[in-house]
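Attaching the record inline, Q. Sequence:
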Amino acid sequence: MKLVTYDAGRGARVGVLEGDDVLDAGFDGAMVAFIEAGAPVGETTPVENARLLSPLKPRSLRDFLAFEGHLKNAFRRLNRPIPEEWYEVPAFYRGMPDTVIGPDETIPYPFYTEKLDHELELAAIIGRGGKDVPREEADGYIFGYTIWNDLSARDTQSRELPVGMGPSKAKDWDGSNVLGPCIVTADEVDANALDMSVRVNGELWGKDNSGNMHHKFADMIAYASQAQTIYPGEVFGSGTAAGGAGIETDRYLNEGDVVEMEIEGIGVLRNVIGKKGR
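Structure, as predicted:
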C-alpha cells in the first residue's frame, strides 16, 4: 500500500495512492497518529485536485551513513580516509523535523552557501515503539519506506566539521529536508534490493542499489534503540547512495534546477531549486 498526506482544500489528510489517484483514507488525524493506530484505513473516497505534501511530519530525523561507495567517492575528494570505526558503528546525526517539505515544493537556496548539494537516500519510517531492540527483530519495527533528499551546504559543512559538533547550518534550514512522494508499506518492497537514481534537469547524475548498504536498517534500529526508546513516526535515513550527491563529482545545484530522485517501488520525488536569498 502507498500512503500519502495530501491537501485538497480541507487541510492535511491521510490518503491512499492508487496509480495517480488519491483516495481519502477515512482517518481523522495526521500520518504519525495513523501509523500509531495501526494504519486503520476506513471507507475510502476519491479526492479531486489533491496536492501531495510531505508524507508525514516526522517525530524525529536520524540520518546514518550506510553506503561505502558514497564515502569512498566523497572522502577521496576531501583527501580523507574512511575511518575504521565506520565499518563497525552505524553512527548518525539528528536533523530538525520542522525543516521538512514535500514533493513539488520549491527548495530554498540559503544565502550563505555557494555549494548547495542534494543527497539521494532511502528512508525507513518506524512503526512501533521499542527499546534495546535485537537486530534479528528490528525489521519488524519498520512501517514503511520513503525517499529523502537531504540537502547540504557543502562549503558551510567544511567549516563546521573541524569543530567536532554538528552538522548544523550545513544541514538545517527551512526546507532542507525533503520527503516523499509517498510511504510504501514494508510488505510491498524489499529494502535490500531497490534501484535508486537521481536526475538533475533530466540528466542522470548518479545511481545505486540499496543492496549496497553496508549498514542495514536493522543495524541502525538496534544501535539507535540502545538504552533509548524509539517511537512510531521516527525517520531513519540510509545516508547518501553512491553517486547520489554532487560532492562526489564536484557538481552543485543552481537556481531553477529540477531535481528528481527515484527509488524503485516508491516513485519519484521532484523539486525545483529556488532563488538564492534570505
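The mean pLDDT is 96. The first helix runs from residue 31 to 36.

More tomorrow.
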